[in-house]
Amino acid sequence: MQEPEEKKIALELLETEQAYVNRLYLLDQVFYAELMKEAKTGKTVPEEVVKMIFSNISSIYQFHAEFFLPELQKRMEDWNHNPRIGDVIQKLAPFLKMYGEYVKNFDKAVELITAWSEKSPPFQELIADIQKRKVCANLTLQHHMLEPVQRIPRYELLLKDYVRKLPPQSPDRGDAEKALEMIFMVAKHSNAAIAEMERLQNLWVVYQRLGLEDDIVDPSNELIKEGPIQKISTRNNSTSEKYLFLFNNMLLYCVPKVIQVGAEFQVHLRMDVEGMKVRELKDTEFPHTFLVSGKQRTLELQARSEEEMNTWIK
User: Fold this and answer.
1) What does CATH list as the number for 223-313?
2) Cα–Cα distance for residue pair 3/164, rounded to 1 Å
3) What is the tens place of the pLDDT at every residue in 266-293?
4) Which CATH class is domain 5-209?
5) Could you say which DSSP state residue 133 is in?
6) Domains of the chain: which residue ranges?
7) What gap in Å lies between CA 213 and CA 209, rounded to an integer?
């Protein structure tokens, strides 16, 4: 007799979970434990660095090995009497928020491994040594570390498939749909964490280009648009090259530095967005020009094209 489709998917979930717990064991109990032991002797890298690389992998490993995998195993052994996994996954979902920290830390962790491998040959040797073992299957530490990042999307796909294959009257339908909704929210939560991290990194790069002016550096700012612009001087009918950064709360009017040491731009003027007015100027001599007037002052600016002018105005 053919196994029902939904049971096949539940079994696939169990098999991939078993393999995943083995991978977590390798990360936590082998890589982390051995690197930490060496760090304590003071020969390879500071203990702090090892902790920063592995983030909260120990909690993730324990959760899957001691709770989720055993629950899933029990459930699948009992499938014929009780064909359901939705309730078990509902218990799992809230704990997946732990992944937010790991996922957010992932890029930094990989950078640390690279940097310290260059700085500390014994550190690099120890990693290479562990990577040669059979259990590593010829894959690098970085490769194994990617696994938790990919696990939540995998749950989401398997569970979507499971819900799709459930017979309409299945006793697991309600639970499985609720579980899927919960996993979906967690996945969104970890994606939002990544997006926020990227936003802050990009913002930091902008601040460096501006020479880290104290009163400008603010993590809540949002960069909306940046780009070169010509400033029209009405006095002598000429234009000069400037650069604009538009944030949600201010417009920075900058001059590109000729000698770029540290900063790329010098901030000439900052204008509050609040109370600012912008309108197109129909100037025959200077096409694509617009006027920006704020509390601080008024600027006549020329864009390189009509399209560019329109996006600035918008």
Assistant:
1) 2.30.29.30
2) 16
3) 887 888 888 888 888 887 778 888 888 8
4) mainly alpha
5) S
6) 5-209, 223-313
7) 10
